[in-house]
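Section 4.2 – Deliverable D4.2 (structural model, holo form)

The reporting period included a commitment to supply a predicted holo structure for the target in complex with flavin-adenine dinucleotide. Inputs used:
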Amino acid sequence: MTDRADVVVVGGGPAGSWAARSAAQAGASVMVFEKDREIGLPVRCAEGVSSRGLEGLVTVRPSWIAREVRGAKLVAPDGTVVTACPGDTGTVLHRKVFDADLAAMAAEAGAVFLTKACVTGLLRENGAVSGVRVEHLGRIFDVAAKIVIGADGVESAVGRWAGLDTRTPPEFIASCAQATVAGLDPDPELAEFHFGSAVAPGGYAWVFPKGGRTANVGLGVPEAACRVRKPVDLLKDFLERRCPGASVLTWIAGGVPLCPPRGDIVADGLILVGDAAHQASPLTGGGILNALIAGRLAGETAAGCVRRGDVSKKALGAYVKAWMKAEGENIERDFRIKKVVYGLSDEELNGVARTLSAIPEEKRTAAEIFKAGLFKHPKLAFEMFRSFF
Ligand SMILES: Cc1cc2nc3c(=O)[nH]c(=O)nc-3n(C[C@H](O)[C@H](O)[C@H](O)COP(=O)(O)OP(=O)(O)OC[C@H]3O[C@@H](n4cnc5c(N)ncnc54)[C@H](O)[C@@H]3O)c2cc1C
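Output (structure tokens):
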């Protein structure tokens, strides 16, 4: 390990590994610092992704797949169940294996990883970010970099250190609690989503089958709901109702930023990516695929800027432009739909579910569900219309 690199990446999650891999593939020397002792652990995630989305970004390895699901079961507050199979399948990952493999792929491309290495601050030269200070097993050392990529997750400090306002307003954070549970009977082919004020006020609860009789069971709710009841207490109630007697193998808690797209994610010598840049879908909280999309763009841009000898905020703006072009509109749309869907009352949610359950199951494609929602529920229709056009 040397004391300088073209690109230093802070954080070895999906965003960091994928940024490191693309920067290394494009010819930059890259170092990645991860504060945990093992890449991929602890897992703070329900591990669900669109199969098609994942396949479009990386060659999928069978060892990553815990379970494939063919659709979703939506459960309304009054218990009305609607199953929907929109054509695309979903994959429930083994994040521990997936994250470790992404890091290994980045290392194969030439990136150098160091775990148990916590970045504690940024170096600066003439106002620009020029490296990082690292604490590793009691030793403190500096590493110079032409560009630092902050991929340090939802609680990102890197952006703040660089003077960017990366705080997430409380109303844009979903607080989540999740248990990995054994001994329940999940439908092996469907992901479950439960809505309603008794289960997850202003959010939703999920059951993602992981194979056999295990599943990730969790929920996410906005800040306002947490002030009334803690997510972990809501989850305990949900577990009792949905899977009484099942064993809890792990508990986790974590926040997901559900924000509109943001452009202030670069500074002189610095790029933010993944949850650190609030790039998860504000509708679902899903951030794995977006972390890969943005990671690739960040790594490519970083390597190009290093090659051209211009790492200014202006030059790094090419990354922001590319990210906005790729996903900006989707994030904007999801943000608007989120505001409507999570603002629906229990009665309105029951009404939507009843409308949808009247459509024959084989016709419940995304388009049909959308149309039914539009025609029968004017409030949703109006907001959906505004979201899309
Ligand atoms: C309960 C829950 C359920 C979720 N479920 C899903 C889901 O089903 N599907 C989905 O797509 N998304 C889901 N998400 C979101 C998803 O987990 C994130 O969007 C994704 O992990 C973002 O990747 P990332 O690389 O940006 O950040 P992370 O995966 O958080 O990685 C950041 C890394 O940076 C390291 N780090 C932080 N600070 C430092 C430092 N100072 N020095 C060195 N290293 C540092 C951390 O240890 C960590 O390894 C869920 C999130 C939560 C909380």
